[in-house]
Design a protein that fits this description.
4-stranded antiparallel sheet; 11 strands; 114 residues; mainly beta
Length: 114
Amino acid sequence: QVQLVESGGGEVQPGGSLRLSCAASGIIFSLYSMGWYRQAPGKQRELVAAITRRSSTDYVDSVKGRFTISRDNTKNTVYLQMNGLKPEDTAVYYCKANYVSVYWGQGTQVTVSS
C-alpha cells in the first residue's frame, strides 16, 4: 500500500518560514521524481517545486529564491523549505510521487497571515 504523508503545515506571519515534509512508504522512493504542488481556494492546483531522482530541481517563478526542495532517500522523505512566506503562498500543499505510477498525499494547509 502506497502512502505519502505530508506534515509541517501551519499558520505563519508574512516573512516567516515553514518546512514541509512528505514521508513515502510502499514505493522504491529513490526511483521516483517528487513534487510539491499547491492549491489555493478557487484556483487550480499548481506545481511549486520538483526534484528528480538525481536531485535536479525546478521551481515555479513565484517561489524561486524563497523555497528549496530536497530529498533524503535514506528516509524516503522529500522536503520543502519555505522562507520569506507571503500571503499569496496560502494554500493546501500536496506531495506527488511520479515514476511508472503517480501517487498523491492528502495535503497540508499552509496559511500566511498577519
